[in-house]
Amino acid sequence: MTDSFSFRLLATDGQARRGEIAMPRGTIRTPAFMPVGTAGTVKAMYLDQVRDLGSDVILGNTYHLMLRPGAERIARLGGLHDFARWPWPILTDSGGFQVMSLAKLRKLDERGVTFRSHVDGSAHEMTPERSIEIQGLLDSDIQMQLDECVALPSTVDDIERAMELSLRWAGRCKAAFGDQPGKAMFGIVQGGDSAILRERSARALRDMDLKGYSVGGLAVGEPQDVMLAMLEIVCPVLPAEKPRYLMGVGTPDDILKSVARGIDMFDCVMPTRAGRHGLAFTRRGRVNLRNARHADDHRPLDEESDCPAARDYSRAYLHHLVRSQEALGAMLLTWNNLAYYQSLMADIRAAIEVGSFAERAGQISEGWARGDIPAL
What we know:
By secondary structure, the protein is an alpha/beta fold. Strands 4-5-6-10-11-12-13-14 form an eight-stranded parallel beta barrel, surrounded by five helices. It contains 15 helices and 16 strands. The protein has helices at 47-52, 62-67, 71-76, 80-84, 96-101, 128-138, 156-177, 195-207, 224-234, 252-259, 270-276, 308-311, 315-323, 327-353, 357-370; strands at residues 6-13, 16-23, 26-30, 32-37, 58-61, 90-93, 104-108, 113-116, 123-126, 142-144, 184-189, 212-215, 244-246, 265-268, 279-282, 285-288. A hairpin with a 2-residue loop joins β15 and β16.
């Protein structure tokens, strides 16, 4: 255990990086995928299961937790770790993305954002200082700056305005965060799909000497090639000795290609959301359990998987659960999906360590391209 926050690179393979983030509540092995625990729970999973699958860190959402049950209440109850029974690291987002996408009647200015809750219509204000205060009340280990994330496509003028505002808010967040031993605040690179603005944002944040850096605004509907092009601009600018986090991404293919460009951390609702809607991620690609072809198939999703949900239950049973809208269907497929994502991350880390990442990535992609086993 350590009483400080640190990041060290253990191996590199091309631009791909194998590292470790050490902090008092535990070590995060990178590249890492963080399951999304929006409201203090990873949907359809016990957190003990999430840990057993290999998760070193989960993500909590500032916007949702401030509205329900309330940050001050969670603080009185001992913080989010005790509240949710997750004693390991937690990263919290700033709430900015949800304010922009979910809140009603929002108004943004230099001070921050005022908005009405999508839950009950109550009025709230989110400033950079309040975002950091809430994340402190939650007692999260890695806290994110408040930023403005614009949807793509947008005009260059609007992207630049939001990027510059986000930089000013980053400075205010850094001041509000202060010196918290064992914890970190990450800045967020913005700039939409503009290479010039992305580089300007990354350089300005680098000059702030933060403990980590994230890339935001690249899970908002843009094509994958745009996302990858922005990473190729941003990653070389960011300090090699600091962790890099790509927010809200993504598919297994997104992760493979982003690791190849130097990203260390990921989060996405995709594996849990897909599981609740009958979609499984496997080494053979995606499998839609709603499809009638599975109705009489006694074979498992993946007979070679270490996850009981993939190995021990028939496709016919999973299909039945999904079509019947049984809660167990969502639970089993979410279990499978998170198991696959964490297995993928372990595979990536092992390949980087021995210098075979490109070869292994090709093999993984070929498995997806071959597709699922034929129906009986």
